[in-house]
Amino acid sequence: MRADAVPDTLSTERSPSLDERRVLLSIFISEIRTAVQYEPGQYVRLEGMSRSAVIESIDAERKRAYVRVGTMGLDVPLDRLGEIVPPGDIRSEDYRKPVRWRTSGAVEHEVDLHGMRVEEALERVEEFLDSAIVNGLATVKIVHGYGSGRLRTAVRKALERHPYVRDFHFGDPISGGPGLTIVHMKTG
Fold first, then answer.
1. In this structure, which topology does domain 18-90 adopt according to CATH?
2. What is the per-residue pLDDT across 15-42, written as a single tens digit (0 to 9) for each?
3. Of 179, 188, 184, whose CA–CA distance to 148 is shortest?
């Protein structure tokens, strides 16, 4: 086709909507990730977690990888694997701060955000969810209180975007109602 034969409609087409651009971006990112050649032994960033993971094995047919985060093994889709990082890159500047793991062996099923500002609370929620994933918890509780509702709204928006959160809902009236969010994690 000659250049002067290009239809004039190209210049008058509408721009894609924000939702359409998000879908296209997610497809583009997925295609880039599947083009990356992951191998066992490599350290990668794992989407939705603030720690790097080491690839133990890859099942190309199922498009899944078995990775280890600390002492916890996870079976994850290949599209959850991020960029390959050096083994010493765990404390990269991209991480806001390292996850603090409990050394007593006890696993927290609940986090209390009372008295925290939104930014501080969201960081704590991220750490808490990372710990829940690594420890294989199916259900956890986030206590945010009633207040003005800003903290509750921010927490729930963060949960909507979290790749390992299956669903969430307010607690029942006896346990705290809308001052508490029950979170169901994706397992397996």
1. SH3 type barrels. (2.30.30)
2. 777 777 777 777 666 665 555 688 888 8
3. 179
